[in-house]
Design goal:
The structure is a single chain. By secondary structure, the protein is of the alpha/beta class. Helix content is about 35%, strand content about 20%. The longest helix is centred in the last third of the chain and has 26 residues. The mean pLDDT is about 95.
């Protein structure tokens, strides 16, 4: 088992900034510590400090060719700065644009004038193990292009955005044929709007309350919400978030009775995200029960701990020679996995996956000695 996990980032925005900072904030924590923000300090034998960045790609002329440590602090990034990241010696490459820049993002991001770099070749040269995609919502063609680069280079792939890859049989088959693991789609933050809404929906169901109508309205001030002002880019996002919640019910909700998705961009919120949830149900005696909730989070750090665990699960699968979509980790970490589970079941499957892969790796290491 190689004790380093070499990771390439697609998109150096706010989520990438929080992820990179997190690796350095927690690099010296001990296994026995209970660390706020981390679900696992060590996962399957891999400590958080075993993650190293091998490559990164973006299209912003102000980020391309900068060291990754500098690019994560470059506007329009505005993620909370909670750790000092040293010079990494990882230049941000020029990625392919395709549909990655929507009409709103083009007003604040100047596209690099130089030609895209050979992404697959760079992934091979840097011996990248895992590729993590943080492309903007709506980057359908760009996501598929980068997935092809990962397949060509022989890398595991983690799809953090709502473009359907792991949830599609064709892509799962492609990864199986190449002997590579896949985790996706659309990252589920640690305690974000989707996981809270899912938990409340499951609670209604388990306690015998019929959910009749619900909405989830989200708004924030970062580039993610600015990009999503372009409503044409939202179709897959709304599908992903809606299915993540309604999958917890044994009956369908009429389309007109459920509304879940981003609603607006409020610049002064910065990287904060505000979520409003309303649920209207029917309980004993056909009596109405209504619930309203407001959740406020720093948006980008809220996903970083999840991605750190997803990276280590992908590497465990590589160590074990597992291929295709990882069902348990995808269900636990993502909104639109190949198969939906209740969250407690997804967590159990993920812990079993970690234990099994770690045990297999330990046996293999012992034989090698």
């Amino acid at each position: 088992m190689n004790k380093h996990i070499r990771v390439a980032l697609i998109g150096v925005g706010n989520c990438a900034s929080s992820l990179v900072q997190g690796i350095y904030k927690y690099q010296h924590v001990r296994d026995i510590e209970n660390v706020p923000g981390l679900m696992h300090v060590t996962l399957g034998g891999y400590h958080i400090s075993d993650i190293a960045f091998s490559a990164a790609f973006d299209v912003d002329t102000n980020k391309v060719d900068k060291d990754l440590s500098e690019a994560i602090r470059t506007p329009p990034n505005l993620a909370h700065q909670f750790a000092q990241v040293p010079h990494l010696g990882v230049p941000v490459g020029r990625g392919a644009t395709l549909d990655g820049l929507g009409s709103y993002l083009k007003t604040i991001i100047q596209e690099s004038p130089r030609a895209p770099d050979p992404v697959a070749a760079i992934l091979r040269e840097t011996r990248t193990d895992v590729v993590v995609s943080f492309l903007p919502v709506g980057s359908e063609a760009a996501t598929r292009w980068y997935v092809e680069q990962a397949l060509e280079a022989g890398c595991a792939f983690i799809n953090c955005i709502p473009v359907f890859i792991a949830s599609q049989e064709e892509w799962r088959r492609r990864f199986e044929e190449r002997g590579l693991p896949l985790i996706g789609d659309d990252v589920k933050s640690q305690v974000g709007a989707t996981i809270v809404h899912r938990a409340l929906t499951a609670l209604f169901q388990e306690r015998g309350v019929r959910l009749d109508r619900t909405y989830q309205l989200n708004f924030g001030g970062n580039t993610d919400f600015f990009n999503m002002l372009e409503r044409e880019r939202l179709e897959s996002k709304k599908i992903s978030k809606t299915n993540a919640v309604t999958s917890q019910l044994p009956y369908p909700l009429p389309q007109g009775d459920v509304h879940i998705g981003p609603s607006d961009h409020v610049p002064w919120l910065g990287d904060r995200k505000w979520c409003y949830i309303r649920m209207e149900g029917t309980t004993f005696g056909d009596v109405p029960l209504n619930l309203e909730l407001k959740l406020e989070v720093e948006d980008s750090p809220n996903s970083a701990g999840v991605v750190i665990d997803a990276i280590r699960c992908a590497k465990l699968a590589l160590d074990r020679g597992m291929a295709g979509a990882l069902e348990g980790p995808s269900a636990y970490f993502m909104k639109s996995p190949p198969r939906q589970y209740h969250d407690h079941e997804a967590r159990r499957l993920t812990e079993e996956f970690i234990a099994a892969t770690a045990a297999t790796a330990a046996v293999t290491a012992a034989k090698d000695r």
